[in-house]
Design goal:
single chain; 337 residues; alpha/beta; five-stranded mixed beta sheet; glycosyltransferase
Length: 337
Amino acid sequence: MTAFKDIIAKVADGGSLSLDEAKTAFDVILSGSATPSQLGGFLMALRVRGETVNEVTGAVATMRAKMLPVDAPDNAIDIVGTGGDSSGSYNISTCTALVVAGCDVPVAKHGNRSLSSKSGSAEALAELGINIDIGPEKISECIRSANIGFMFAPLHHAAMKHVGPTRVELGTRTIFNLLGPLSSPAGVKRQMTGVFADKWVEPVAEALKELGTEKAWIVHGSDGMDEITTTGPTRVCELAGGELRSFEITPEDAGLPYAEMKDLKGGTPAENAKALREVLAGAKTAYRDIVLFNAAASLIVADKATTLKDGVEMAADSIDSGSAADALDKLVAASNG
């Protein structure tokens, strides 16, 4: 434990960890060898100083090495947010994932219970009739038969049990809020990922580049959402061809109307599941528009669309043709089969 104490001392003094030091630190933590006091001190020292790309990359590499993997197609995409944006919105990435699956793109959706709203992806999908407590082989079968499978984070990242109690006691964001979305059990090379704070857009893209991701959009809405928003501009950092490019997009770029935050507010898992089903049934709402926007970006990441307007058209067809609803029905059947 001397090595970990040295690492705690280094970050407490404001020092940054190398990639190898970060891997060592998180191996100690995720092996259960750090005491609660050491873990709390380490996490808060990082938070106060500001986590670095090396630290995030090293932590993700260690999480990936310890996770229970899922076999997915090489072109699979994950559509996921960090949570923690306190927006209380509908389940946008969940609905987006179903719409993208309806466009014949394999989706390996990673998610968890709610962090900042009444209904996380896990609660909403369970309410829709999907069995989320299934193993890797069954999830792979779901992706093959329905074009989408859901990976419930606690079942794939058992090592996180060592940090759960301390995170709850701290009651504030730590580096672990970023790690889940970057630690896909399916090892996806394509990601559409929302982050809870503007300052993380470029660093998360840099970390994914270091981790071998082929293509990704990292996004943060000007209203604070960990999604592409329709209430204003959205910051984007695109990773493509080994290069990073930052830019801003608005609903106008996708040919979509602006919305007000009140029109995107969700509720209980039952309420969110009902609203999601209504979108898939063709209801013309602000929820549909924001899903079309996020789906369009996801289709660019998947190399299915070249522009946001093309992506919106494909996503709208996925809904209006019934393909997205069909993906949901197939996922319900496959996960319970």
